[in-house]
């Protein structure tokens, strides 16, 4: 239970070093986007890479070459989908969600909160983490595609350009 064989420990060390080195090389060639946290799709790829690396390390049933091929396949698929989503809007719509406006000019947007399964308390907590104590100091709170909150402070000029792609943001002409 606590120890099987020295050979098993040696396998973990050798395979771990080789798999880790290969993963670093693969990620270096695939670019920064492979491990970004831009949206849910990117998170899934990151978790899958970690899970695959753990399986390579701990499962004697998975040969190093098979594990490395699995890592390479995940990275290649992520690269392909990211490449396609940058070039084809329909692919982008399938893979990525849109940022959603949750709070705007002093008002919690209840339908947006419900649809995104976010409570007003979570919005206020996000505002507090930015060191803001007055809701009147906040122009907008946006739930980003990666699940994080963006807080825009109230300024003399409306923040329309930063909000152009935000779901349910009222157009300036409205």
TrEMBL record:
Membrane topology per record: Multi-pass membrane protein
Gene3D superfamilies recorded: bsu07140 like domains (3.30.240.20)
Source superkingdom: Bacteria
Principal subcellular localization: membrane
Segments traversing the membrane: 6-27, 39-58, 64-86
Stretch forming the signal peptide: none
Record-annotated YetF-like N-terminal transmembrane domain positions: 17-83
The YetF C-terminal domain, residue ranges: 88-156
Stored InterPro entries: DUF421, UPF0702_alpha/beta_dom_sf, YetF_N
Keywords: Cell membrane, Membrane, Transmembrane, Transmembrane helix
GO CC, alphabetical: plasma membrane
Compartments in which it is found: Cell membrane
Family according to the record: Belongs to the UPF0702 family.
PANTHER family: UPF0702 TRANSMEMBRANE PROTEIN YCAP
Name of the protein described by the UniProt record: DUF421 domain-containing protein
Organism annotation: Phormidesmis priestleyi ULC007
Top-level taxonomy: Bacteria, Bacillati, Cyanobacteriota, Cyanophyceae, Leptolyngbyales
């Amino acid at each position: 239970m606590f120890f099987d064989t020295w050979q098993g420990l040696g396998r973990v060390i050798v395979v771990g070093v080789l798999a880790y080195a290969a993963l670093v090389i693969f990620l270096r060639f695939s670019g920064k986007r492979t491990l970004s946290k831009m949206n849910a799709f990117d998170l899934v790829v990151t978790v899958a890479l970690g899970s695959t690396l753990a399986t390579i390390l701990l499962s004697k049933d998975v040969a190093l070459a098979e594990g490395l091929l699995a890592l390479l396949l995940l990275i290649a698929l992520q690269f392909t989908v990211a490449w396609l989503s940058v070039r084809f809007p329909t692919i982008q719509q399938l893979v990525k969600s849109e940022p959603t406006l949750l709070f705007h000019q002093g008002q919690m947007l209840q339908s947006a909160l419900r649809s995104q399964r976010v409570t007003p308390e979570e919005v206020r907590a996000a505002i507090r983490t930015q060191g803001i104590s007055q809701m009147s100091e906040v122009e907008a709170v946006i739930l980003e595609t990666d699940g994080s909150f963006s807080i825009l402070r109230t300024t003399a000029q409306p923040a329309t350009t930063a909000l152009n792609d935000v779901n349910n943001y009222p157009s300036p002409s409205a």
